Amino acid sequence: MSLVLIVEDDDVVAETLTLYLEHAGYNVAAVRDGNVGLQRAQQPDVALVVLDWLLPGLNGNEVCRRLRAVSNVPILMLTSRTSEDDRVRGLEGGADDYVPKPFSPREVVARVEALLRRAGERATGPRADAVRIGDLEVDIWRREARVRGKAVDLTPTEFRLLETLARHPGRTFTREELVARAFGPDYDGLERTVDSHITNLRRKLAAGSTRRYIHTVHGMGYRLRDVDDRRLESP
Fold first, then answer.
1. Dmax of the chain from CA atoms?
2. Which residue among 75, 121, 138, 217 is buried most deeply as judged by most CB within 10 Å?
3. Which of 43, 41, 26, 39 is nearest to 77 (CA)?
């Protein structure tokens, strides 16, 4: 059974979310401090982290940034900050999704379900072959990406974006299409968040190869360049 870690210093919020998540069938642990949350989130039994932005010790954005440097665990950010820049900064720091306060506990449970489903927690169905493009390999079954045989450390959202592009190399996807495939059709967030995740994904893929795989198609969106594609586009 999946363990959801709540890092939230508001007792009422933490207790309410614990009640709803336990009712949905999850084991739940809750901590109040950012430093404690960062340490606890790195334990192997944690399947997902629900992380408040404003915390004592380390703030949520810093916890997210440090955790993402060492772990791919899905992160759902809770925030009372509603400006576009604040939300984008949280996603750029490695959060996979966010819920603005005040929120419905049922919505948080639904977002947790969606993140875990996309992370492969409850994946079923027939095995898919790995997709290979040049020295990039995207293993759909294991939900792993490798460049020149070396594993690339991706977040669940980054992998879902890469999987979408890799299944159709050479095809251009609009931001709307990528949002629907990576975040789900009911996601009401900003299309700009795709740009942040694509930037991080490019950086991680580039660390193992001199080849630039993901290309921008001006006025349209993004595509994964086929190994035989020689058209000139923006990087």
1. 57
2. 75
3. 41
The structure tokens listed for 96 are: 């996979």
Lowest mean pLDDT segment, chosen from 74-78, 141-145, 200-204: 141-145
Could you tell me if residue 27 is left (phi over 0), alpha (psi between -120 and 50 degrees) or otherwise beta?
Answer: beta
In angstroms, rounded to a whole number, what is the distance separating the alpha carbons of residues 154 and 144? 8
Question: For 25-61, how does the pLDDT look when each residue is reduced to its tens digit (9 = 90+)?
Answer: 889 999 999 999 999 999 988 999 999 988 998 888 8
Number of Cβ within a 10 Å radius of residue 62: 15
- Are the C-beta atoms of 77 and 90 separated by less than 8 Å? yes
Phi, psi of 38 (to 5 degrees): -60, -45
Question: Distance from CA of residue 17 to its chain's centroid?
Answer: 21
| Close Cβ partners of 186 (under 8 Å, ≥ 6 residues apart) | none
Decide: pTM greater than 0.70. Answer: no
Q: Which residues contact 188 (CB under 8 A, 6 or more apart)?
A: none
∠ at Cα 155 (153, 157), nearest 5°? Answer: 140
